[in-house]
Every structure is written in structure tokens, then in C-alpha cells.
Amino acid sequence: MDLAQRIEDLIAPSIGAMGFDVVRVLISGKQRMRLQIMAEWKNGRTVTVENCAQLSRAISAVLDVEDPILEAYTLEVSSPGIDRPLVRLVDFERFAGFDARVETNEPVDGHRRFRGRLLGTVGEAVRLDLGDSVHDIPYGAIARAKLLLTDELLAAASRTQQH
Fold it and tell me: Of 10, 11, 2, 113, which is closest to residue 56 (Cα–Cα)?
């Protein structure tokens, strides 16, 4: 198990009890390690700066006790934002109908970069409509994926914030 997965496993119960889901745990940095944690409300509400501060305190408490990181690091807690990364298979289903960019580790149907409309999932694959063709991209082959900022996505986000 890699360190990011270990950290996610450690913090998920605590932030879950607060009403949040972990979106992504990312570790980066050469000189000083940076631990980035993205979280969102389980009920879809907008994450505020105060929410991030509360999450940061809770996450720090867990990491101080468990001590999974041996070197000095900077903790950053944020929301995924509107043009969010798509990390879990369920994200691709949840955001079906919106435009996304997907990059793969190895070529799929002769391409490594795809840009199109998410059609959801088929088994363990992400279905993407590129306009002239539809591709099923194996979830395990995806290196990075994110929603694209469009008027349609902004309108949907605005409707969500009003409820």
C-alpha cells in the first residue's frame, strides 16, 4: 500500500464522521513534502474556507497520532472545485453528461488524451463521447481526469449552491 492510500485510510473515518468524503490524497514536492487532501460534503453542499480549516485540524490530529509521514511536510486541505478532478469510478457516473478531459497511462484505441462528454460507466470502463466516436476507457488505464469548465457545468454548480 502506498503512502497516499495509507493516509486516506487513516483520515477517511474521521472526516466521514464530519459529513465529508475524501476526493483525493496527493503527495508531491522534492525539497519539502506537500500533502494535499481534497474533500467534499457527502450531501453535495459547497465546501467553505471554514470547512477546510475544520478538516485541516481533524486531519492534523489523526496524522499526529498515527505519524505515517517521517519527514516534514505541508498540509493543504481544499475542495475539488467546479472543474474538479475525477478520481473514483463513481465520479465518472455522477458527472455523466458533462465534458471531461481524460489522460491514460498507455494508449487506448490509439490515443492517450481524450476530450468529450462523459456517458457514465460500463462495468470497469469510463464511456466518453468524442463527438465522432464513443470510447470505453478502462478505469485502470486512467492517469488523470477532470471536468472541463463549461457554461453547462457552471449553471449546474449554481443550481446546486441555491438548494
Answer: 11
